[in-house]
Amino acid sequence: MIAQGSVQELLKSFVFAELYTDRKDVHKPKDEENARVQESRFADVALPLYVIVGPDGQERARLRGKTTIPEFTEFLKKGLQASSTGAR
Q: Which whole-number Å values give the CA distances from 86 to 1, 25, 42, in the listed order?
């Protein structure tokens, strides 16, 4: 999904971060801590969970679970729009 051209173009407007919580191939001790951070910060344990947070630390948009490219693109656009208007 992230590799799609339309998504890549939109992602140029974001600072991208990943919080790994469930790597199956090799257990990383930080994964459990990251899962606690996800639950405490976002009150959500959905995987995948996509959240757009503005520079003020406020959540701008959220997308839970598997999604399609059009849905993900709309989520990114919503986050950009909310960031420019200050709305959620």
A: 27, 40, 19
53, 71 Cβ separation under 8 angstroms: no
User: Which pTM was predicted?
Assistant: 0.84
Residue 84 token pair: 């420019």
Domain region containing 36: 5-85
Query: What is the tally of structural domains in the chain?
Result: 1
CATH number for 70: 3.40.30.10
Residue 29 confidence (pLDDT) above 80: yes
Task: Write the DSSP symbol of residue 15.
Answer: -
Contacts 24+ apart (CB under 8 A), 71-74: 72/1, 72/7, 73/6, 73/7, 73/10
